[in-house]
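A brief tutorial aside. Many learners find it easier to grasp structure tokens once they have seen a single protein encoded end to end. The record that follows does exactly this for GTPase. Read the sequence first, then the structure, and try to relate runs of similar tokens to stretches of the chain.
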Amino acid sequence: MVDVPELVEQARQGRPRAVARLISLVEGASPQLREVMAALAPLAGNAYVVGLTGSPGVGKSTSTSALVTAYRRAGKRVGVLAVDPSSPFSGGALLGDRVRMSEHASDPGVYIRSMATRGHLGGLAWAAPQAIRVLDAAGCDVILVETVGVGQSEVDIASQADTTVVLLAPGMGDGIQAAKAGILEIGDVYAVNKADRDGADATARELNHMLGLGEARAPGDWRPPIVKTVAARAQGTDELVEALEKHRAWSEEHGVLAERRRARAAREVETIAVTRLRERIGDLRGDRRLSVLAERITAGELDPYAAADELIAGLTGEETAG
Ligand SMILES: Nc1nc2c(ncn2[C@@H]2O[C@H](COP(=O)(O)OP(=O)(O)OP(=O)(O)O)[C@@H](O)[C@H]2O)c(=O)[nH]1
Ligand SMILES: [Mg+2]
């Protein structure tokens, strides 16, 4: 058992080991998480969360590392969360990230953490907000969340972040891919990385064209900017930071930031509630209440929907009573 108040206090003071322990509790779906989250609740809500997504190899980790350098120069404390929704354990694909992030390894103003979410009910939706809350409570001003772009996770990350950066690179047929993956709806800022390669201008133009094809925007609506970067040489990073700051200011001003944070919290609650209900229903296999209902169905006294209602009412009644 972990001494939660002590651990939370140490994390609040910014002790890296305590932060790491807390995120491990999230990753391991520890039964003590409930206590951890209760202790963290009043401490969080200050960090600005930036999500980075895009196809494998597009330069997410390199860009993240360049952003860390830029934000550190501005005196911000930075948290980095690399989430791999497809891997059952940390390591593997994320190992390379550690190399790309190694220049920040000895900086006490930076926390870097990889997290695997496969195998968790609710996956990213459940674990990422909790890990973000840990980093937030530990005093990070900015939290960069890198997610490998595999289908649903790209859309998931958008719902976790205050600002979502979608990365593309020339010559990867990314334009078409982007349209297919629904990526054109989730980017608040687009980065065409690897701009040192041929075709970056064409990719940016194509993207600009596709973004312009959407429904007409009202005046004051956000028009996602496209920034060209060479992350490997930290070129365009200042422009990227500027675009992020602009989006942040715009979403604060238009109430979008608050709305997104509420939506994020709502999703988190929903995932926890559904997970708990599913656990309870799982527990019911072989339970007498279920067999009684089943008997009434087979006897023609009850339909399965009414039975399910009865079951849920019983479970939730029990939940609030106990
Ligand atoms: N030429 C060029 N190469 C780059 C640039 N940025 C990153 N790379 C290289 O592209 C490769 C992939 O970069 P990563 O940052 O690991 O890409 P990623 O999107 O994080 O990759 P995954 O996490 O595996 O999906 C590395 O070899 C980088 O050095 C760039 O601006 N120009
Ligand atoms: Mg990466």
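Self-check: The pocket of guanosine-5'-triphosphate (ligand 1) is lined by residues 56-62, 93, 96, 100, 148, 193-194, 196-197, 230-232 (CB under 6 Å). If you spotted this yourself, you are ready for the next section.
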